[in-house]
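I am hoping you can look over what I have pasted underneath with an eye to the fold:
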Amino acid sequence: MTLAFRHRPVPPSPLSRWDGRWKLAAVLLTVAAIAALDRLAPAAAALGLGLGLLALARLPGAWVRPRLLVFAASALPFLLVLPFTLDGAGWDVGPVHVSERGLLVGLAVLCRGLAIGSLALLLVGTAPLHHTLAAAHKLKMPGLLVQLTVLAYRYTFLLADELRRLRVAMRTRGFRVSADRHGYRALGHATGALLVRGADRADHVAAAMRCRGFDGTFHTLLGFRTTASDIISFAALVAAAVALVLWDRA
């Protein structure tokens, strides 16, 4: 087992050089502002802001597009349901009434979801996750919560590796997934083995951490230094978020 964190390379950009504390604070405030939007036009502008920041971050399109599709899929049910459930003027398509208000609300939800997803990808793509968590700790996030998040992130990869080894072992023994009693029993045994191995690994890791003096305190060697550009970027993004909220309420 290695203690190294696995993360994708961070492309050089103005956002990757932004101090993690200011970036995290600005993104969280902007997400809160976007979540408070109601109308379609401000939500669409928020989506444009998020996509513009992704372009400024120079993140690879092949990495961004499938993840944005996941956020779009999570908001798609609102777009499919709201036009047929909200009252108001609209269009009659046979026996079905399509509400214009419902369509606008559904599109606003979709735009808000994609905008928030863009900002989430911005956080993940412009700095390694443990850098962002260290910045969160500097912003007074409880150290124990940060530590638990770091451990969960780290051991998700270990469990995925364990699952991959189990799949390879089963396939080399001729197992193929089938919807019968034998297939379900084999998958159940594999799931149980994965859980038992995970619990056993967690016990060993906890014992090793206690032997090294772990007391639940989050420690990091990362240093943060505020520059004028960090403050200007924070003010600009927060001002844009405030402008969106004021536009939405006007």
About this structure: The beta strands are 90-93, 96-99. The chain has eight helices and two strands. The two ends are 56 Å apart (CA to CA).
